[in-house]
């Protein structure tokens, strides 16, 4: 029952909307211009036309796209090489640590139970903060429990 | 020795491993098969801004932006702007600049709009008052070449190197001997605090070293301090988020924030070869 009432109300408001969106009847030429604009923007979106490339222009476009793909590939490979170097360095250090001291090695492979990630970490932006780097940071004062002596 | 242990016992000794470490009386440096074990800190400041695009990248972005515009649905300007308003006039000026840029392959759309916007801002007083301030991509520290400022080389990763009071191998990453009963990551945190002060917001990435470097001590050094003939340094990675290095002027007399490319100007070639692979190119 309530469902029907609801749908009924909804369809009523939709009717009102449609009536508003419909072209305003010409009543003495003073119809609200805004409604006409809203209707046009909402319902009469011109279709997006895809650029029609042919012949030489198409060839040019494809060459540009291919060059861009190549560039991206090179960039990705450069980054992978860098990461691989870092990884190799890390595993070499771990091997060396295993040979050097068993105690230190075991401590290094234990993961902390409280893995946290700093929220201060941020990704590079287009422009830096106008305040710049905070050089005057001081650590928050630790709360020292009051001594009873 | 006592002076060095005491503040730590009072300080944040919440770590289990730390409290174990402090309970041990003899604080001899850890030696393994004639090598002294040391913990080094690779403290980095990550890039703050995006890198400059190469000319090729710029040209491609411009090309695809223009292509996108050609096929885009035109903006219903009469819906968004009131007739005869300032906003409409400005938009029309921008649009005219964009139309001009579309015909000119050397001028990009965003540059064209930027030019007209600068003109509009100069002409109008209210926009000057409400102007949104952004920092400059080239900082003051870059212009003055201030290697101690963390505002320099914003596009690159900076690494902290410190200078020890000696003639050879003076510059290096902060490092210090691991003591008996101490772990690498504890030693790294302690050494960084001892050498560079507390006023840095630092996060250590993990407990595993990111690289290592072994070297022999000079012979006169071995004669003076027998027990170890060389040292093995294990580097721990850390990030800095705020604050500045504050050297203690005893162990460390100077410091600098340098990029990977600038590092060979300070350290010896052997040291650079040993550490270069664990540093970021950018």
From TrEMBL, chain A:
Keyword Hydrolase tagged: no
The keyword Mitochondrion belongs to this UniProt entry's keyword annotation: yes
MF (Gene Ontology): structural constituent of ribosome
Region (Disordered): 120-149
Transmembrane segments: none
Main location: mitochondrion
Coiled-coil portions: 73-103
Entry GO CC: mitochondrion; ribonucleoprotein complex; ribosome
Pfam families to which the protein is assigned, alphabetical: MRP-L28
Top-level taxon of the source organism: Eukaryota
GO biological process terms held by the UniProt record: mitochondrial translation
InterPro entries attached to this UniProt entry: Ribosomal_mL40, Ribosomal_mL40_fung
The entry's keywords: Coiled coil, Mitochondrion, Ribonucleoprotein, Ribosomal protein, Transit peptide
Annotated compartments: Mitochondrion
Family named by the database record: Belongs to the mitochondrion-specific ribosomal protein mL40 family.
The protein's name in its UniProt record: Large ribosomal subunit protein mL40
Lineage: Eukaryota, Fungi, Fungi incertae sedis, Mucoromycota, Mucoromycotina
From TrEMBL, chain B:
Main location: mitochondrion
Compartments in which it is found: Mitochondrion
Molecular functions per Gene Ontology: hydrolase activity; structural constituent of ribosome
Domain Nudix hydrolase residue range list: 140-280
Keyword Mitochondrion: yes
A single cellular component GO annotation: mitochondrial inner membrane
Presence of the UniProt keyword Hydrolase in the record: yes
Keywords (A to Z) from UniProt: Hydrolase, Mitochondrion, Ribonucleoprotein, Ribosomal protein, Transit peptide
Family according to the record: Belongs to the mitochondrion-specific ribosomal protein mL46 family.
Protein name: Large ribosomal subunit protein mL46
Origin species: Umbelopsis ramanniana AG
Classification lineage: Eukaryota, Fungi, Fungi incertae sedis, Mucoromycota, Mucoromycotina
